[in-house]
Specification:
779 residues, alpha/beta, Leucine-rich repeat, LRR (right-handed beta-alpha superhelix), twelve-stranded parallel beta sheet, 53 strands, 12% helix, cell membrane, repeat, membrane, RLP_Defense_Trigger
Length: 779
């Protein structure tokens, strides 16, 4: 019943299979506790395989009552509890041959000597998923096993945690075909004797331990091993000159992330069956041997990144036509993209970034990558136009070169376009807006211009939009708000004008759905490649080492990486973290108007930069809703009013800058994060007061109105009143006199009006008063 996608719980009627000798339920979706009582009635069971389901709970204790059991595989579930040495020891030592307890959640201390008397035992695999399991092989000291193993995998299980020694019982093993001690903390010299004592050994995986010294193989031994992985250790020195002659059948060699140095020996070309060669993250130097690129024609993966190799690698001797992954980045390679590369057709990854290569990019470059492939050529000296042949590529990184001309309108639906730091001109072509699969567009630091077209809303799957450092102008169209999946947007250092769209709160900016993660890559079943941060090539040989072809599952450790300015520095975000990082940068433009209060609804945004614009008005009270904000920069605007005291609730804010505005009033209390902000966060605002500023609020009040503390609000300052009255009086009569002097007609009219007023006053007021006075005098 294996691999049938069955789900639900196991039927309690499994006891009806009392006569069954083999049960295989592997690679289904069964879940819940396994019915232990029913299992324990299967007395005739010989093979029991429930691997890679979703069973949980405690491992049934009565499993040791099945005396005929030969194969026990419960790997890939969620069984918990202590891995009992007594349980394992009680399995019938005369029948059990195969035990796989890997990828569960066991914990506690397990003594491997429990297997000592299991004479038929051939395969033991215990690979922990939670790092809480400790396996000890040296207790008691000097025990001697009755078994001869063919496969032993003790991965990520704190093997011999106290001493870090490699298990000593291995000195008595001579039939091993597979050894995997990866992800432990074993130390000492490389155990070359494992290869010498076990002539049938095909796979040796010691990655991510602490082995040191030289990687040396005895030249008198002809070693038949197919895969060696000692990556992530502390091995050093040079590779021995005859390494290729000692291991002619080697198909996978991974010695990355060590301290090897010097030139590569030319005998590496004698590994004529080599499929994977990973020398990355060492200190190798010199030129790549001609023998490697001309004789290792079966190479599928060649990884030389992060070394000190130099010279021209794409010479006429380059004959690696089977390559699917080529990583040469971060070396000192020179030369051009020779036509010898045009014979490649199935490249999933072509990475020559961070070198000193030059010339133009040929039109056939897009033909070497398969559909969904990755092309990385950043940080070189390539020039000329971007060719049109980049079709069906997943990721294109041509950033930091000297490419010029317009963006090609013929880019065929890539998901990630990285073109930062070139000399590109023109506008964003309309044809590019037809790419609904585009997730990242980075064209910063170029000479692009024009306006943002409303068609930008067609980028429905866009997560990162980086247009900073160009010459874009015009208003920010509201159609930008239809890009609801955006996490990072940088429109800084352009000439955008107008107001900030009020609809920005419709964009996610950090509000993610765990089912919609774009950059937290996992196994891609469509392509057969593993996309992750680590590179392991050793999964491939156990079941196929007798064949002439090794079905290699290759890693993919080129993760999307972008830079974004936050907290006053440019930080690099790579891989899955991009799903969780969020920010909006509109700084250094010509934006006007007020700050939309709706921005306060961006509760998941980490960085907001509106500095160096012409914004006016108040800081919105609703900014207290920026619950996840870490950096808020509103400096160099014309904002006024007080800083909302409610911002003190923003507990994650590490940077706050409102310098050089027209703010006034008391600075928020120095509590929570505001207790960490220095006066530079507030400088350039004359009427702000309170700690950490030197100006006390009483001092600022006196400067604004010296007697404010002694008067009521309705009292008038006499000095101010008379001064303003006098100035007004003088200005009014000066204007009247000027008009009368310039215009004779109005001057005559004015004199006539005055004369009429005088006559009217004499007859209307003075004459009656004179008559009244005479009457009073008579009496």
């Amino acid at each position: 019943m294996g691999a049938n996608r069955l789900n639900g719980s196991i039927s309690p009627y499994i006891e009806a299979l009392s006569s069954a000798k083999a049960i295989s339920l592997s690679y289904n979706n069964f879940n819940g506790d396994f019915p232990s009582q029913d299992l324990c009635r299967l007395k005739k069971l010989e093979e029991f395989d429930i691997s890679y389901n979703d069973f949980e709970g405690i491992l049934p204790q009565c499993i040791n009552n099945i005396s005929s059991l030969r194969v026990l595989d419960i790997s890939g579930n969620r069984f918990i509890g202590n891995l009992s040495s007594s349980l394992v020891a009680s399995l019938n030592p005369t029948t059990i041959e195969y035990i796989d307890l890997s990828h569960n959640l066991f914990e506690g201390l397990f003594s491997f000597s429990s297997f000592a008397n299991h004479s038929k035992l051939k395969v033991v695999r215990i690979m922990s998923d939670n790092s809480k399991l400790v396996i000890e092989t040296e207790n008691p000291m000097g025990w001697t096993p009755l078994f001869q193993l063919t496969a032993l995998a003790l991965q990520n299980c704190n093997l011999n945690k106290l001493t870090g020694n490699i298990p000593k019982f291995l000195f008595d093993q001579h039939r091993l075909e597979e050894v995997d001690f990866s992800h432990n903390k074993l130390k000492g010299n490389f155990p070359f004797w494992l290869l010498e004592n076990n002539t049938s050994l095909r796979l040796l995986n010691l990655r991510n331990n602490s082995f040191e010294g030289q990687f040396y193989l005895q030249p008198e031994h002809h070693i038949n091993v197919y895969s060696i992985d000692v990556s992530g250790n502390h091995l050093d020195g040079r590779l021995q000159e005859n390494i290729g002659k000692i291991t002619p059948n080697l198909r996978v060699l991974n010695i990355s992330r060590n301290h090897f140095e010097g030139d590569l020996p030319s005998s590496i070309g004698d590994m004529s069956s080599l499929n994977v060669l990973d020398l990355s993250f060492n200190r190798f130097s010199g030129k790549v041997p001609t023998e490697l690129v001309s004789k290792c024609t079966t190479l599928i993966v060649l990884n030389l990144q992060n070394n000190n190799f130099q010279g021209e690698i794409f010479s006429k001797h380059f004959k690696l036509s089977a390559l699917m992954m080529l990583q040469l980045n971060s070396n000192q390679f020179t030369g051009t993209l020779s036509s010898v590369l045009s014979t490649l057709r199935e490249m999933y990854l072509f990475d020559i970034g961070n070198n000193s290569m030059s010339g133009t990019i040929p039109n056939w470059i897009g033909n070497i990558t398969m559909s969904g492939g990755t092309l990385v050529m950043n940080n070189n000296f390539f020039e000329g136009h971007i060719p049109c042949g980049l079709h069906s590529t997943f990721l294109i990184d041509l950033s930091h070169n000297s490419l010029s001309g317009p963006l090609p309108s013929c880019l065929d639906a890539p998901s990630i376009i990285l073109l930062k730091g070139n000399k590109l001109t023109g506008s964003i072509p309309k044809a590019l807006f037809n790419s609904s699969s585009l997730m990242t567009l980075d064209v910063r630091e170029n000479n692009l211009s024009g306006t943002l077209l409303v068609e930008i809303s067609t980028f429905s799957n866009l997560r990162i939009l980086l247009l900073g450092g160009n010459n874009f102008s015009g208003m920010i169209p509201i159609q930008v708000c239809l890009l609801k999946k955006i996490g990072i947007m940088d429109l800084s250092r352009n000439s955008f004008s107008g107001t900030i769209p009020h609809c920005f709160h419709n964009i996610s900016f950090g509000k993610i759905n765990t089912t919609d993660l774009a950059f937290s890559q996992s196994y891609d079943t469509s392509s057969g490649f593993y996309m992750g941060e680590t590179s392991s090539y050793a999964c491939l040989l156990v079941r196929s080492h007798d064949s002439n072809y090794v079905n290699i599952v290759m890693p993919f450790d080129i993760l999307v990486e972008v830079e974004f300015v936050t907290k006053y520095r440019s930080s690099s975000y790579k891989g899955g973290i991009l799903d969780y990082m969020s920010g909006l940068d509109l700084s250094c433009n010509k934006l006007t108007g007020g700050i939309p209060t709706e921005l306060g609804q961006l509760s998941s945004i980490h960085s907001l930069n509106l500095s160096h614009n012409q914004l006016r008005g108040l800081i919105p009270e609703k900014f207290s809703g920026l619950a996840s904000i870490e950096s808020l920069d509103l400096s160099h605007n014309s904002l006024s009013g007080e800083i909302p005291s409610t911002l003190i609730k923003l507990n994650f804010m590490g940077i706050f800058n409102v310098a050089y505005n027209n703010l006034s009033g008391k600075v928020p209390d120095m509590k929570n994060q505001f207790g960490t902000f220095e006066k530079s966060s507030y400088e350039g605002n004359r009427f702000l007061c309170g700690p950490p500023l030197e100006n006390g609020c009483s001092t600022i009040a006196k400067k604004l109105n010296p007697k404010a503390s002694e008067r009521k609000w309705y009292e008038v300052d006499p000095t101010v009143f008379f001064a303003s009255f006098s100035v007004t009086y003088i200005i009014f009569f000066s204007m009247v006199a000027s008009i009368l002097y310039i215009n004779p007609y109005w001057r005559q009219m004015c004199f006539n009006l005055i004369e009429d007023i005088m006559y009217w006053s004499y007859f209307t007021i003075l004459t009656p008063l004179k008559r009244l006075s005479n009457r009073l005098c008579r009496h």
